């Protein structure tokens, strides 16, 4: 395995205050809505998941302000979920068949992680709260780090720089939808199990316990690349969980269908929920290649993040769910 080649775009500090520690949001900037394309794609590698009683959340939250708890019981209908996130190759087929233009392309820029020393110094001078994130003109799904970058050597990697609205459009094209947060957690746990991670409860580390694509080393000063990847890994990599799902921890954040909400009556939670409603924020799950226990401990199953539905970044992707009685 070899690390992805780092592109060298011209970086600018992201202008808006990020909503999460991992990925900045556009803060609800709006574009005219794009219509959903007619169904025409093909569902791939979807795994049927029986319905029934399950759990969501945890009674031992590591980041309580994210609304990870409390644990609660849910009843799920049978559903199917694709074993991997949607790849660049599949997203390219979607664009070629439908002419779809993503929101990052329509905005003309998107958020890119760039932690090299020159970019970090420039962002700090500009007052960026998270100096490794940059607004890069021309960054989009086919140029994830901006002009000069390409997906040609990453066709089997997750499609990134895809907004919630873009993900819904792709899902509709293949006759599916985005999973709910409860469905996503149920699939990641391998059923109604109390697992901290898709593989169990063993904490990954920087040297020997390499179960997923997260940051290894001291964030953001240096990534040892112990897992073999600087950015994304192929969508089908590392050992799948007991149900056969790949990369449900690390690699890329995954959009869900659900609006972001914290289940608490505290004043802070009420204020956060009001802000989430105002900006129509959606839940993302799974963490990304930037997560580390010392900085962004969000590669746990119960962890979550929120972004506005028009936001996109170089560490955000998605997978598709299906109602079993509607699968093509």
Which secondary structure elements does this structure contain, and how are they paired or packed?
Elements: E1 12-13, E2 46-49, E3 52-56, E4 72-76, E5 79-82, H1 88-98, H2 103-107, E6 109-113, H3 117-125, E7 133-137, H4 164-173, H5 181-189, E8 253-259, H6 267-278, E9 282-285, E10 305-307, E11 316-317, E12 321-323
Parallel strand pairs: 8-11
Antiparallel strand pairs: 1-7, 2-5, 3-4, 5-12, 6-7, 8-9, 9-10
Mind telling me the C-alpha Rg? 18 Å
Provide the domain count: 1
**Biggest sheet: strands side by side, in what order?**
10-9-8-11
Terminal residue distance: 35 Å
Q: What is the tally of beta strands?
A: 12
By helix and strand content, what is the structural category?
Answer: alpha+beta
Portion in strands: 5-15%
**Helix percentage:** 10-25%
Average pLDDT rating: 87
Shape: globular
């Amino acid at each position: 395995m070899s690390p992805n080649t780092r592109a060298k775009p011209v970086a600018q500090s992201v202008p808006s205050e990020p909503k999460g520690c991992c990925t900045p949001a556009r803060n609800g900037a709006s574009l005219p809505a794009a219509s959903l394309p007619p169904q025409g794609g093909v569902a791939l590698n979807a795994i049927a998941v029986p319905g029934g009683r399950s759990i969501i959340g945890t009674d031992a939250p590591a980041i309580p302000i994210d609304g990870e708890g409390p644990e609660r019981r849910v009843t799920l209908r049978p559903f199917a979920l694709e074993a991997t996130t949607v790849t660049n190759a599949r997203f390219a087929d979607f664009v070629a068949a439908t002419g779809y233009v993503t929101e990052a392309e329509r905005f003309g820029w998107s958020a890119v992680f760039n932690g090299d020393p020159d970019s970090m110094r420039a962002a700090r001078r500009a007052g960026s709260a998270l100096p490794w994130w940059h607004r890069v003109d021309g960054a989009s799904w086919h140029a994830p780090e901006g002009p000069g970058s390409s997906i040609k050597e990453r066709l089997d990697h997750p499609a990134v720089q895809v907004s919630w609205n873009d993900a819904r459009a792709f899902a509709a094209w293949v006759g599916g939808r985005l999973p709910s947060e409860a469905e996503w957690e149920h699939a990641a746990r391998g059923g109604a199990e109390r697992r901290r991670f898709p593989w169990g409860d063993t904490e990954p580390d920087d040297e020997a316990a390499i179960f997923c694509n997260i940051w290894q080393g001291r964030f953001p000063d240096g990534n040892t690349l112990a897992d073999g990847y600087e950015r994304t890994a192929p969508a089908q990599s590392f050992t799948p969980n007991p149900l056969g799902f790949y990369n449900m921890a690390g690699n890329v954040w995954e959009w869900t269908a659900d609006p972001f909400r914290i289940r608490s009556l505290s004043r802070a939670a009420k204020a956060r929920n009001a802000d989430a409603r105002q900006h129509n924020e959606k839940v993302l799950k799974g963490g990304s290649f930037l997560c580390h226990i010392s900085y962004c401990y969000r590669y746990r199953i119960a962890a979550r993040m929120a972004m506005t539905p028009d936001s996109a970044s170089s560490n955000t992707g998605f997978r598709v769910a299906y109602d079993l009685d509607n699968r093509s």
